[in-house]
């Protein structure tokens, strides 16, 4: 009888420890927002070459996976760069230029549409605060409206970003300063905070540089690097362990095997 009681006690303790030690792996799921009202224009031509680069720092949007379905946001939406990577559904409305058979198109925020104070906000200064405005690539705009319209009223909402694979980290800087551009962010698409950990350091909080870039003033050469990233919208944090090997170099991009949802 004693042996049975001892076995039961051991089983209960082991089961309890298993429950305690099992992490909660349920991911935070980003949900679409409510619809809002705005206006949309376009910049560049059908090649979308003028959209390359941009204030978010994504560089070549074609090779980095963003393509031509992109938009520059007015500063009201851009939020000092914290909206970089966010995804929006945009549908044309209340204009004869709208394509009636197109419900919406989806774009990623990759650039800033700066104010033009030399023009009235309702006549050319479309991105002047507090206007909510999307300056889309021409190919993206042409999916919802006739380009000759120039500007159309739209409805928009935030939606989850669908990205294949994990986060990508593009390195710039030098031996004492690491500047990292975070790309291919799924879920909310946006980043509010970032930390780096070398194989011989603790977690070092990185400061927001601009757009989708974060920086650390630290000597990290010769160490494998891991990153902790927090979503601006959902506040979820994920860790990408050992993203870059100890012989990492600036000018290269490193891929993680984790992402938001």
Please characterize this protein's 3D structure.
By secondary structure, this protein is mainly β. It has two domains: 36-159, Barwin-like endoglucanases (Beta Barrel); 168-255, Expansin, cellulose-binding-like domain (Immunoglobulin-like), CATH 2.60.40.760. Helix content is 11%, strand content 34%. The protein is built from three helices and 14 strands. It has helices spanning 2-21, 75-78, 138-141, and strands spanning 36-43, 70-74, 87-92, 105-113, 133-137, 152-159, 168-174, 177-183, 193-198, 203-210, 213-216, 225-230, 237-244, 253-255. An eight-stranded antiparallel beta sheet has the order 13-12-9-10-11-8-7-14, with no helix packed on it. The radius of gyration is 23 Å and the shape is elongated. Residues 176-256 form the Expansin-like CBD domain. Causes loosening and extension of plant cell walls by disrupting non-covalent bonding between cellulose microfibrils and matrix glucans. No enzymatic activity has been found.
């Amino acid at each position: 009888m004693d042996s049975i009681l001892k076995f039961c006690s051991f089983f209960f303790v082991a089961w309890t420890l298993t429950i305690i030690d099992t992490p909660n792996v349920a991911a935070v799921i980003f949900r679409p927002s409510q619809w809002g009202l705005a206006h949309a224009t376009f910049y560049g031509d059908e090649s979308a070459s003028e959209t390359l680069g941009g204030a978010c720092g994504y560089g070549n949007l074609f090779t980095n996976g963003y393509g031509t379905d992109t938009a520059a946001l007015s500063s009201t939406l851009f939020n000092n760069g914290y909206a970089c990577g966010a995804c929006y559904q945009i549908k044309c409305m209340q204009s004869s230029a709208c394509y009636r058979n197109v419900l919406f198109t989806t774009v990623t925020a990759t650039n800033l549409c700066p104010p033009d104070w030399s023009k009235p906000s309702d006549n050319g200064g479309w991105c002047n605060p507090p206007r909510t405005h999307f300056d889309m690539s021409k190919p993206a705009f042409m999916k919802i409206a006739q380009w000759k319209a120039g500007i159309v009223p739209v409805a928009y909402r935030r939606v989850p970003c669908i990205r294949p694979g994990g986060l990508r980290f593009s390195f710039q800087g030098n031996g004492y300063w690491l500047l990292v551009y975070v790309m291919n962010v799924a879920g909310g698409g946006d980043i509010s905070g970032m930390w780096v950990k070398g194989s011989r350091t603790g977690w070092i909080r990185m400061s927001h540089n601009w757009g989708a870039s974060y920086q650390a003033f630290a000597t990290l050469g010769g160490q494998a690097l891991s990153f902790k990233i927090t979503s601006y919208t959902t506040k979820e944090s994920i860790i990408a362990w050992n993203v870059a090997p100890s012989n990492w170099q600036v000018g290269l991009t490193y891929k993680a095997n984790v992402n938001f949802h």
